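Q: Here's a chain of 410 amino acids. Please give me its 3D structure as tokens.
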Amino acid sequence: MKSSKLIIIFQIILYNDFKFIVILERNILNERIEILKKIMVLKSISNLLIFFLLLLLPSTVLAQEEEQSAGNKIYTGNDNSITGSVERDLYCYDRISDIDGANIGRSAIIAAQNVNIKNSKIGDSLRSASQTLNISQTTIDNNITAAAQSIYIDDGTTSNAIYGAAGELEMHGTTNYLLFYGDSVTISGNIKGDAEITASNIIVKSGAVIDGNLKVLSENQPTIEDGATIGNVSVNLKEKEPEATIGEKIMGEITSIGYWIVATVIIGMLMIMFANQAISQASTLVRERPLAFFLSGFLGLILIPFVLLILFIPLVTIPASAVLLVLYGVCLGISVPFTSLTLSRLFLPNMNKWLSGLIFLAVGALLSRIKFVGLLILLICHIFILGYAILALYRNMKESFRSNTSEKFD
């Protein structure tokens, strides 16, 4: 059952990556490229984060190797060395996947920290999410779809097409089409069709062959060495923004802080209007139970993200976990004004709530924007609002239980 859930997760995440890559391909040189690039980066990072957090789960929860009656093979655990034949699909969820001399009938779907594939044959596509992906002397009948920090493909590897997002790509193999987004790209292989690349540094080595069009979106001109053969080169250079002067940087920072203070004050004023009772309750709780208040907030800051991650694994709890994630984000977003208003009630109890709130909101917003100090202020504010939310929820549940119990006895 656990293995089936992992298969579904892999399919959803990697299939969605493929759809985004296709969108990027269709819009590679139009005005929406910047938005799509950011989506690609965020999506790749989030997918890798999900997989690496999943790797923290005990490996004993799932079997090390499982062969299904449908002909698929599933490998889980820490380190797996995979050889031999797989009738249909191969699924790997582990820390290191070493595939050597394997013959995979259909697709290989892999999530690991490091993926090494050599001397193998994949009858359909390779889909991989990892830190590093190394492929050598391998035949892939269909496509390579990969998200990684670094991707290396040697000169003995062939595929139909390559769709990738990574910090660094070295492509020495043979393929019919390349679509890539990243930071650095080196090509010395044979691309029988087009190559569309979005990267900062692009090098086409001597001996490389691109029979079709090389389409480039970059801040820099690609380096094309003598001896490289390319059908046609199309370069779309992004204009580099001029570096701001020291005075402009200072004014920009002051303006940014000003906007932040104004936004914090506005949110705080709205909270006084619509959540005044919650602010008063928080000041009472922190005065009466300061240790429980901050301890609950600290534990919540650590445990809530982990609980949300666990809830995202079963498909049936994904909607509920998404709602909880939004609520968690809202709490963190309003933590600075909420904490500032609560402290204003503690330290200036006799002053007009609007005036004391305005003072503390401005001071809290300013402190949260100071380097290093701001990080500490934000951490305290996050702990503060989570502590209130947990204690208030506990108190309400306790009162509700008492009320229900007294009604039964009556």
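Q: Can you summarize the key feature?
A: The first strand starts at residue 65 and ends at 67.
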